[in-house]
Amino acid sequence: MLDPGLNRIDSSVQHVHLIAVCGTAMGALACMLKDRGMTVTGSDEKVYPPMSDFLRQQGIVVEEGFDGRRLERRPDLVVVGNAVRRDNPEVSALARQGLAYCSMPQAINRFAAAGKQQVVVAGTHGKTTTSSLVAWILHHAGRDPSFLIGGILRNFGSNYRSGNGDCIVLEGDEYDTAFFDKGAKFFHYRPKVAVLTGVEFDHADIFADVEQVRDTFRRFVRQMPSDSLLVAWDGDESLAELVTGSPARVMRYGPSAAADWRIEAVTVSPPWTRFDLLRRGRLWGRFRSPLLGAHNLANTAAALAVVERLGVDAKQAAAGLEAFAGVRRRQEIRGTAGGVTVMDDFAHHPTAVRETIAAVRPHFPGGRLIAVFEPRTNTSMRRVFQDVYPASFDGADLVLVRRPSAIDKVPEAERFSSSRLVSDLKARGLAARHFDTTEAIIDFLAAHCRPQDLVLVMSNGGFDDIHRRLLAVLASCGASTHP
Fold this sequence. Notes:
By secondary structure, the chain is an alpha/beta fold. Helix content is 30%, strand content 26%. The radius of gyration is 23 Å and the shape is globular.
């Protein structure tokens, strides 16, 4: 029986080994441990760029495949990634050798967050953007924060930073921690300030229904320290019940008259969204945001409420917001070729798809919005949202849906159907097609794109490098004038 041994680790730890090191968060943790002067090694089943190159540049040795003999080096601590199974050869070696081990969030809390004020951003949507905004505004204000976030901040070219300031910004994840700890990752953090952006059903592979999801978030807010602050979205009335009972001080943000932080006087004049932010009915500041859409306006309001709590004034916050370069894979323009703009976005949940389409539509008025969707997550490959997805695409002019490449991993009775989604979209009056391969989508777009079109690619994965490949094809042949 394995016995997590983090309590056996003291400040003398020298060598840490990470199993499944090439994940975004695990790779960032490896780098933060290296910044602390530790020897860091790692292993993973699939070692390839960009993470393999990034880790190598940081001087971190990564070996491909899992081999229990690696543990014969007897590292002081082994960090076990979320995707690692109990029968992993290196996990088996842990048991035989009695080595100390822990999960990723335990290691973050012990080493990266020790002695710092923790800002934890949680919720079904908007975690990466909100936490990135907080981290950047704090940095721009001279606070030198640390952060570990699930996306690459364009201002830093990284998803982590080991700062010397007194704050660390963490993206709080409700997904389970490890095979030996099925509780949510964010249970391991102790926030000074937390954000709750909203709660919807997601992660159908580990949650049976939305009430299980809500119970997880309820536990999170109820274990917050009594001297902490919880900043919660006010656009979801069900959150009022969920946050009741939290020992933390609760402030709500959003557009309603009752919100502690209220968004007013919103005007969109590309490339800026301008708005006023009121704190308890009084103007706190006037802002210009480079981000698109109502959902990002909400994310921005949450971030501003957090930085105010941490001592950043409105003038400093406004300057930081205007200088924010965004997050990769969040409404990221990958390029323009033949007059066609290709945008990459992480959207995959129906709400995120709807909000992303609504956000970008006004900024590209001259052409069509072509939505290209890859259902790839454990939830989107299941039929749980089959009847919800069609309405999410209403703002698009043309929808192209790829058959999920890993659909065989889902039990047949639970599988999402791309062809049915397309039929439902057509029934709503939308032009739509489904495809079995990424190559077929690229060929179709090359033949049918027009100048001024926006191709909005939505997937939480690499989508077979469709963005770069499509831009190359469009550049070589020019955009079509076909209808």
